[in-house]
Design a protein that fits this description.
The protein has 218 residues and is α/β, with parallel strands linked by helices. It is 15% helix and 23% strand. It has one domain (4-174): Glutaconate Coenzyme A-transferase, CATH 3.40.1080. The chain has helices at 4-12, 84-92, 128-134, 196-202; strands spanning 20-23, 42-45, 49-52, 75-81, 98-101, 105-107, 112-113, 138-141, 153-154, 169-171, 175-179, 185-190, 207-208. β11 (175-179) and β12 form a beta hairpin. The radius of gyration is 17 Å and the shape is globular. The two termini are 12 Å apart.
């Protein structure tokens, strides 16, 4: 079973040379720390950064330099800073190749709910709806089950939706799955030490297991 850094490390393998990538709040921000050597990627933050680097070392933080989740970050050589209007212009015009988001729920048809729990205070929907509406490719980084042990990979989302039929792949502490066009979570890899039975028990939506499922490498 993976921890949050393990999930981020596995997702970093999905990042390809030359990509422009947006990292959402939560686990996705950790991906910046695990970009493979030799891969040239430009990380975008919707608050107005292009060329974001990994988190700073303790004692080297600049409180004026933050990502969309208000975490301190670093800038790589050649990076640029601009206003939110320009940032969302990049997103809406599909200049971002890959978006990595967290989620509270994902359905077997690729719907995502990640912005609101009814009855709880929210700051606002943020940029998630623009990202899911415009992104060419969306990977979700999330826990497979909630704190009560209930599956977050569902037949249908119970929470208010952020986007419909937009998620392509999911990486959790238990598995890597993609979503088929006709619906269903197809199991691609299982986390080290995790059995197929554990993944079945943790998945409420339709789970498709085709052949031997390899253990993921990080």
């Amino acid at each position: 079973m993976l921890d949050k850094n393990g999930i981020a490390k596995r997702i970093a393998r999905e990042v390809k040379d030359g990509m422009y990538v947006n990292l959402g709040i939560g686990i996705p921000t950790l991906v910046a720390n695990y970009i493979p050597d030799g891969i040239n990627v430009v990380l975008q933050s919707e608050n107005g950064i292009l060329g974001m680097g990994p988190f700073p070392w303790e004692g080297e933080e600049d409180a004026d330099l933050i990502n969309a989740g208000k975490q301190t970050v670093t800038l790589l050589k050649g990076s640029s800073i601009f206003d939110s209007a320009m940032s969302f212009g990049m997103i809406r015009s599909q200049k971002v190749n890959l978006t990595i988001l967290g989620a509270m729920e994902v359905s077997e048809t690729g719907d995502i709910a990640n912005w609101k729990i009814p009855g709880k205070m929210v700051k606002g929907m943020g940029g998630a709806m623009d990202l899911v509406a415009s992104a060419k490719n969306i990977i979700v980084a999330m826990q497979h089950v909630n704190k009560a042990g209930e599956s977050k990979l569902l037949t249908k989302c119970d929470l208010p939706l952020t986007g419909i039929r937009c998620v392509k792949k999911i990486v959790t502490e238990l598995a890597v799955l993609d979503i088929l066009k006709e619906g269903g979570f197809r199991l691609l890899e299982r986390a080290p030490g995790v059995s197929i039975e554990e993944i079945k028990n943790a998945t409420a939506g339709k789970l498709i297991i085709d052949g031997e499922i390899p253990e993921m490498t990080l």
